[in-house]
Structure formats: C-alpha cells, structure tokens
Specification:
The protein is of the alpha/beta class. 34% of the residues lie in helices and 23% in strands. Helix 8 packs antiparallel against helix 9 and helix 12 packs parallel to helix 13. The longest helix has 19 residues.
Length: 811
C-alpha cells in the first residue's frame, strides 16, 4: 500500500504529495486525512495523508520508498471534504497546501519536529567518566537536544565527538501538544445484597463510609466524581481510599471534556411570534433547507429587525432534517450573548470555537464535532473548518465585517470558503447584515445571491433619532471638550433617567500620539514607521504593531523641554473625562487592554447587562450585535477616524460603523438617540448613516468605486515585499513587477512598486505592488509561476513576499 502525503515544510519546492510505503502493521489505522510521522531527508516530520493507492506516482520500485513510521490519531482529523477544500484554498490564495491544512486544525494538533540525543548500547557506567551529560543519558537514555544545550553548555561542544565515537546518536521525533483532562470517579463494585451487608458490617464511627455506600445503594450502577462527593456531600478522600482498600469501590481516572460553559445554566425563552417580514424571508430559506439544495441568501435587515430569530429557526429546521449547521460571528465580544441563545435553544448540541478559549478547551470542543456529539458550531472565522460531514446550513452574521478576512497566510475570506463549502454539500448559505459589504450587495442585485429585505424593526419600533454635531461649530463656541454640548446634555439626561449608554471610539489607549510643543518632536516606534500611543494606566507609550513599549518621558528626548504633551483622544482619556464631568458615573471600558484576560469579554458585558454600569465605552468590539434593553443613547466621539485613512473602503467602513453603533440604541421598549460628532458632517457616508439609508449610500459609493476602478468593478491582488535593507526590497519588488508586466493581459492594471503606507514594521522595510483586474482566469497560475521563479532568489536574499487575493488591509 502506498500513501500520498504532504509534509510540514511550507515552501514551494515541497508543495506536493510524496509517496510513502505503508507497513502492514499500520494498514488498519491509516486513512485519507490521517496525521502521520514520516522521514523526510534527515528529519522526521508530521504529514497528512491525501490519498492511498496500490501504485506510487513517482516510483515503480516500492522497495526504494521510505515507510510511514507512525499514525498519530485513531480517527483522521481531516475529512475528505476538508482535504479537497485545503487544496482549493492553496490554489485560490496562493499558499502552500500544508499551510491551508494546518489552518483547519486546532493548534494542539500541529506537531513539532524535535532533535533528540539518544544513548547507544555502547554507553554504560564504565564509559561515562566524569561527564554529567553522559551519566544523565545513561539513566534516561534520551534527551531533547535543545535541553542538552541549555543544561550542559560546556559539554554540549563535546557531543559531535561522542556521536562520532558511537556512544551517542541523534534522531528526530514529532510530538503534538495534545493534553487531555482527567477526573477521578468512584464506582461501586458490590451488588445490592452485598452493599446491604457491607453497610451493616461498618462500625458506628465510620459515618462517612456508611454515607458513601448508602449513596451507591440509592443510585445503582452510577459513578460519582470525587469532586462532586466532596463539594455536595462533604465526603473526603480518606473514607473513599479505605473502601477501595476493602475492594468495595474503585477510584478511576476518567477523561472529561474541558467545557468553558460546564457550570452555566441556560434558560430557554419561549419562541417569539414571527413578524410578517420574518415569515416572508424564512419561506424561501426553509424551502431550500427542506429540499437540501444549494442556495445563497443575503438577508439585509436593519438593526433590531429580528435577524437572529430567523437564523435560529433556519438552524432548527436543518437539525430536524438530520443535518448540521455552522454559525459564524465576527467578534469574540458577540460570542457570549450568542452562546447563551444557542445553548438555551439547542442545549448540548452546540460546540463553541473562538479565540477566547484555551487551547485545551478548543481541542475538546473540536473533538465533540469530529466525534459527532454536536450538530451546531458557533464561532469566529476558523469555525468554517468544523469537521462536519453533513452540513446543511452555514450562517454568516454581520457578513460585512473585515474580521472574516484572515490577515496571515493562508489569507482566506470566510465568506468565500463558506460559499465553496455550501456548494459542495448542496447546503444553504445565509449571510446577514444591516450594512452588507458592497461586493456582496452588488452580487445580490445581480442575482448571484437571493436578496431578502427586512427594512423595519420588530414591533414597528422606530429607528433611533440621529443628531449630527459639527465639531467645528463647537470649537467656535469655545467648547474644547471631547463631548459636544448635545452629547453632554443627553448623557446627563440618561443618568437622571437611570438608562444606559454606549459610547464608541475607534481607538484604544489614552492619547493617539505624544508630541513636544517646543520642537515638534513626535514619539515614534524605533521598529515601525508609526507614532506611539500613550497608555495612562501604566504611563507608557506603546506601538500597536510590534508591541515596543517605553516609559513616558518627563522631558523631550530631542530638546529636553518639559512641554511634552499628549494629543488626540483614546478610550482611557474618554473614561477619565467622563469621570471628571459626571462624578459617580459607572463606566465599563471594553478595548484590547481591558479584555486581554480570559473571560473578560463575558464578565464586562454581564456586568453591563445586570445594570452595574451606566456607560459601555469601547472600540469596534462594542459596535455590533450587542442587544441591551435599557440602552437608549449611542454616542460616537470621532466619526471621522476611519474616514480619512488611505483605504478605498474608508467611506464604507465609516457608514457601517456609524449605522451599527447607532443600532445599539432603542432596540426595545424605550426610544433611542444617536449623537455623531464629526468635523465633516457633509460627507455622504455620514449623511446617509443619519437617515439609516443603506441603498442611497450604496448608489453613491458605487459611483465612486466605478470612477476609481475598485471592487466590485475590479478585483485586487496585493503583493508585499519586506526586507531589512531598502535597496534589496526595492530591487525585489521591481524585478517582480517587470516579470508580471510582460505577461499580464492588457486589461489588467499594475500599480507600483511603491512604499507601503506604513513603510517599516518590525525593522523591515515594505514595498508593494497592486494588481487590478476584471477577467484574467490565468492570473492565479501566473502568480504561482512568478512565485516559483523568484523563490530561490528571495530565499537567498531573505526577502519575504506575501500575496493577498482580494485584500482588506492595504496598509
């Protein structure tokens, strides 16, 4: 038997399956999708089986093939569908096949190849001499080479001589990072009559032992965890060990799932009566689910229109058909609220996958899926790779969100992967948003997706009233506060009424930059071309790209002036200003700094939901999906922040943010208000957001995109080159541009090479090329050919090149 295996070497030269002979003893275990350990050159590496045949592709002489050494899992972690999808992703996003495979697996399954030092049979007590290393190896027989270098630095230099003399040898081992949680359970070994006799035979002072046996007599054939016996019954370990010694009980180690929601109780709410609009949009979706046919729907519904109930009903009908459902959310902050609704509705049938879980918790949730113990997955971008084998429905909530695009290799978009998967499974793809991505809405208007509209809130509740404040007029009125008079007045009003507020600022930290008023010096990162952000909590200035941090200086490093000040506004500064203007106000701040701890998102949102905060202040993570009955005011401090960045999507992102943040207010019985503070109130994105008018914004923005030649009229590919030396990176970018110009179709536009908008990150200078094209079916093949042509040169020069198909970040 011959296995075709892709190995964990993510470079172009090894981007294909290699043939390995499968020894007879492994044939019962190895299957397509298995993780295996194979020899590759001098090393042992992890690989993935892509095919099994009786004939090799490269060799006719099977005896010359190397053998598979180990199969790492009883059940293959990759389904045939996921393998096919990874091959498609490799070609679509121009990345090594093995990189696409690894994006689909939990981190603990990504095995690491380590070099070990082993003792040969010639190493014994007589040959160890005074060497501490040899004595250690004679006892343990093997040690990781990295550990040897660390523990025995002086003797490490003698290792090559000992290998040459035959005392030691080296070998590669592949180990994954799988850990499993075990818990002690107690099981009774006695039958009913024996139990009665045992209880009667115990002395009067053995009260706890009697209680244990009585418990087992009342619950025949049931085992109890030692933790439960201790916490609920007050039974210590000592009587249990005594009963085990008598042969009446056995204490066993049982593997249990690490469940982050194990101690939570979820109460299911009664299903609401569907509105006519909900019934109308559900009809075609449920018809497609019933017929098990591929269909793609875009559900365009205003904030508060009841899209989530549509999703839940569609999932329920999918499960009734015996199929599985994947539900994607864009932000971890949305997950707690969504998990609550899903667990309440579908109970133990739900697995949760997002970055807020530990690696062990993610692995256990993933195992529930592959063991077919759940039918619904709720999670962020990577949940699209859930190893289901009978997918009937994929839902993408807030489909416009940029977080669905992966910014590391493989640079996939979850929406495109979902589309591929829905077609493969004859499943339904349901995308929903109050502010769909322009590309998605354009495809829906052209018939590629079916457009479903929900233009009204549930119960005909009014959309919040929007007030646009021109901050230029505030300055003329000598109001230099970050809060306009209108917003100040409305915050005071809500505090008096004991209602809640959401205040949004698309920055974190205290100030956006630190500058000397005497000489104009601005504190910048020494590794990146970007200013440092001041953080008041620990009085540091930090780079949000590479993490470089310095203490805030008391004097200007250039001119030694004391007039070094903080400019701009960050979330910490807004929090401080609120406390100053409204003494006693309870602010819950949510940004990257306050939510880095595990469980922090859920904890902060839970506090706000329980009314323990007056204001939820935050960055993008509070901008969408959250639903709080008592929130009646949404304040947007600086609406222009995202409007003036060098990005063709700037107006679209601004409109989406304003609409989504505004949509948090007045979602229930109380009416809502939105205050938008801006220096450019006349901009069409702000004007249309004021009227909640997506269609008018779409038409204006499409005119701009058509005039400038950007998506959806053109597709883009961004090539970025980086190196520590400017001349090297320029030469690399220009050589690639020259190569492509000669081979591209006349309709394809090549822009650049030019320095990236952020020209240096982590001490590497960056240049980029952008391709704009409409119809060039061979472009992927050409880019793959170009990558291969310059691979060796780039490797020698240590130039890093990335290719981003349909990029979302152009910085």
């Amino acid at each position: 038997m011959i296995a075709q295996i892709i190995v964990d070497v993510p470079v172009n030269r090894t981007n294909r399956p290699f043939d390995y002979r499968v020894p007879a003893w492994l044939t019962p275990l190895i299957r397509v999708g298995s993780r295996v350990v194979v020899p590759f050159g001098p090393r042992k590496l992890q690989g993935y089986v892509t095919g099994i045949t009786d004939e090799g592709t490269d060799f006719t002489d099977h005896a010359r093939l190397k053998e598979v050494e180990q199969v790492l899992d009883d059940t293959p972690p990759l389904t045939k569908e996921l393998l096919d999808m990874s091959e498609w992703m490799s070609k679509q996003y121009l990345c090594p096949w093995v990189t696409a495979v690894q994006a689909m697996l939990p981190a603990v399954l990504k095995g690491k190849s380590e070099k070990w030092l082993t003792a040969t049979d010639d190493l014994d007590e007589d040959t160890c001499g005074n060497s501490g290393l040899l004595w250690e190896l004679s006892r343990k027989r093997q040690l990781p080479l990295a550990e040897v270098e660390k523990q025995f630095p002086e003797e490490y230099l003698l290792v090559p001589g000992w290998i040459h003399s035959g005392l030691l040898a080296t070998e590669y081992q592949v180990k994954d990072r799988i850990t499993r949680k075990h818990q002690s359970f107690v099981r009774c070994l006695l039958g009913p009559e024996q139990l009665a006799e045992a209880i009667a035979s115990l002395p009067a002072r053995a009260e706890q032992m009697r209680r244990v046996l009585t418990l087992f007599s009342q619950h025949a054939d049931q085992s109890f965890s030692m933790q439960m016996l201790r916490d609920e019954w007050g039974i210590t370990r000592s009587p249990l060990k005594s009963l085990e010694a008598k042969g009446w009980l056995v204490i066993e180690q049982v593997e249990v799932y690490r469940d982050p929601y194990a101690n939570r109780k979820f109460s299911d709410k009664a299903k609401p009566e569907f509105t006519p609009l909900q019934k109308q949009v559900l009809a075609p979706i449920l018809s497609s689910i019933q017929n098990q046919e591929y269909a793609a729907y875009l559900l365009h519904g205003v904030t508060g229109s009841g899209k989530t109930e549509v999703y839940l009903e569609a999932i329920e009908k999918t499960l009734e058909k015996g199929q599985e459902a994947i539900f994607l959310v864009p932000e971890i902050s949305l997950t707690p609220q969504m998990v609550e609704r899903f667990k309440a509705r579908f109970g133990a049938d739900v697995a949760v996958l997002h970055s807020g879980l530990s690696q062990g918790e993610k692995f256990d949730e993933w195992r529930k899926i592959i063991r077919k113990q759940v039918k619904v997955v709720v999670g962020a971008r990577s949940a699209i790779f859930a190893p289901f084998e009978n997918v009937g429905l994929i839902v993408i909530d807030e489909e416009h969100e940029s977080s669905y695009k992966q910014e590391e290799t493989p640079r996939y978009h979850a929406r495109e992967v979902a589309l591929w998967r829905a077609k493969r499974n004859h499943a339904v793809l349901l995308m929903g948003s109050a502010t769909p991505a322009l590309e998605t809405y354009a495809l829906a208007t052209r018939g590629r997706y079916t457009l479903l509209e929900m233009p009204e809130r549930v119960g005909n509740r009014p959309m919040p009233a929007v007030h646009v404040v021109d901050m230029r007029e505030e300055l003329q009125a000598e109001n230099r506060s970050m809060f306009s008079r209108k917003l100040h007045e409305m915050i005071a009003d809500r505090l008096e009424k004991q209602e809640q507020m959401v205040i949004f600022l698309n920055r974190r930290g205290f100030s956006t930059f630190v500058m000397c008023r005497s000489c104009g010096y601005t504190m910048r990162c020494i590794h990146c071309d970007i200013s440092l952000t001041y953080h008041k909590t620990n009085h540091t200035a930090r780079c949000h790209y590479c993490g470089y941090t310095i203490a805030q200086p008391a004097h200007c490093p250039e001119c030694q002036s004391e007039h070094i000040r903080f400019f701009g506004t960050g979330t910490q500064k807004v929090e401080a200003e609120l406390a100053k203007l409204f003494p006693g106000i309870r602010v819950i701040r949510m940004d990257v700094d306050t939510t880095s701890r595990k469980g922090a998102h859920e904890e902060l949102l839970s506090k706000f939901r329980k009314g323990q905060g007056d204001v939820l202040l935050g960055t993008q993570m509070i901008a969408k999906g959250l639903d709080f009955p008592r929130v009646t005011l949404a304040g947007i401090i600086a609406a222009d922040t995202s409007l003036h960045i060098p990005d063709f999507r700037a107006a679209e992102k601004t409109f989406q943010l304003l609409t989504q943040v505004g949509g948090r207010a007045g979602r229930h019985e109380l009416d809502g208000d939105v205050v938008i503070q801006t220096y450019t109130p006349e901009h069409y994105s702000i004007q249309h957001a004021t009227r909640h008018d997506y269609r008018s914004f779409y038409e204006d923005e499409m005119l701009q995109r058509r005039r400038t030649g950007y998506p959806p009229y053109f597709r883009l590919v961004l090539l970025t080159f980086s190196h520590e030396d400017v001349p090297v990176v320029i030469r690399s970018a220009h050589t690639m541009a020259d190569y492509l110009r000669q081979r591209l179709a006349e309709t394809t536009i090549l822009l650049g090479p030019v320095a990236s908008p952020i020209a240096r990150v982590k001490d590497r200078f960056r240049f980029q090329i952008m391709l704009k094209y409409r119809d060039e079916p061979q472009l992927s093949a050409l880019l793959a050919q170009a990558t291969a042509a310059f691979d060796e040169w780039n490797k020698q020069q240590k130039v890093l090149m990335t290719i981003d198909v349909d990029p979302y970040v152009l910085l």
